[in-house]
Structures are given as structure tokens and as C-alpha cells.
Design brief:
Layout: H1 3-8, E1 19-23, H2 24-28, H3 35-49, E2 54-55, E3 62-67, H4 68-75, H5 82-95, E4 97-102, E5 107-112, E6 114-120, E7 123-128, H6 133-136, E8 142-146, H7 147-151, H8 156-168
Antiparallel strand pairs: 1-8, 2-3, 3-7, 4-5, 6-7
């Protein structure tokens, strides 16, 4: 679909200076995710940076709520039921682990990235694992990413390569 046709249908996401910081530890960690999962993760990370979250305390994690209509617009999705697209992505996100591995000292740590993802009343609520709180805020080394740029990728490998290369700069 051309950009003009997207604009006519009102589904273009307009960036409002949506740059956000992503911990280099998360960028370089080992995890598998689909393109949709990665885009959802970047959207909620951008919300964290914009301080649009609920902090549930030391053991509760950080919670981000995004309206489905807004997600659909940001992702440029206009085919089929967006609910049916979100459901498998949310299921996969809650079952994914993120690994921090240092083979030089024979050490590793694997934790679930998202402790829960809930969809109700056309809102997606994502709750991050409380153990990752220090990696979700720019208190460690981080890379500044442009959300609009990341949302335009059509291939997960290109998106990941973009993040990794920027984190090395």
C-alpha cells in the first residue's frame, strides 16, 4: 500500500519526537522475537521513556497501557482483525526469555521479559518482569533509537541489525 493511500485511510503514524533509549544489555542479549513482538516491545519501551507507565514497586515491575487503535495506527495495520494479530504476539511475548550470557567467566542469567500481557476494552496492558527494571530505564549504557524508523522495518533481521549496529557506535 502506498503512503498516499495510507494517508487517505488515516493510518499513518506520525512521529512526535518518539526517540527512546534502549539498554545495550537488552539489545545485545539473546532472545527470539517476531517482527510484531519486536515492534510492540519498542512501542512500550518508548512509553517507558516518556514516563507513561505505572510503577508497581520493587517486585511488581513496570506496566504500560496502549490503546489498540493507537497501536494499529502506529504499526500501519489495516488487514484483518488487529485483536487476532495481537493475541499470538502477546502470548509469545509472555513466554520469551531474555538471556544475559558471559562465556568468558561462564556466567548466564535468563529471565522472562514480559510477565503478563492483557487485552481488554481495546487496550493492551504489558507488565515487564521486575528483575529487568534496571535495564528498562537509561541508568546503564543505552542506545537512542527512533521509534518511527523501527516501525517501518518489514524484516526482523534488519530491525535487529539496525539496533545492534547503532549500539556499537
Amino acid at each position: 500500500m502506498t503512503r498516499k493511500k495510507q494517508e487517505e485511510q488515516g493510518i499513518i503514524y506520525e512521529s512526535h519526537n518518539d526517540s527512546f533509549s534502549k539498554s545495550n544489555s537488552i539489545i545485545s542479549s539473546k532472545y527470539k522475537a517476531s517482527l510484531m513482538e519486536q515492534k510492540l516491545l519498542n512501542i512500550v519501551l518508548a512509553r517507558l521513556q516518556q514516563k507513561q507507565y505505572i510503577d508497581c514497586g520493587e517486585t511488581g515491575g513496570l506496566v504500560v497501557v496502549v490503546k489498540a487503535k493507537e497501536l494499529k495506527k502506529m504499526m500501519g495495520s489495516n488487514s484483518g482483525s488487529f485483536y487476532e494479530q495481537l493475541k499470538p504476539a502477546a502470548e509469545a511475548m509472555t513466554s520469551r526469555t531474555i538471556g544475559f550470557v558471559n562465556d568468558d567467566i561462564e556466567a548466564f542469567k535468563y529471565v522472562s521479559l514480559i510477565s503478563s500481557a492483557t487485552y481488554i476494552d481495546a487496550e493492551l496492558t504489558v507488565k515487564f518482569n521486575h528483575e529487568l527494571k534496571k535495564y528498562l530505564t537509561p541508568q546503564t549504557q543505552f542506545t537512542v533509537l527512533e521509534l518511527d524508523t523501527l516501525l517501518h522495518y518489514k524484516n526482523i533481521y534488519a530491525l535487529r541489525l539496525h539496533e545492534i549496529l547503532l549500539s556499537r557506535c
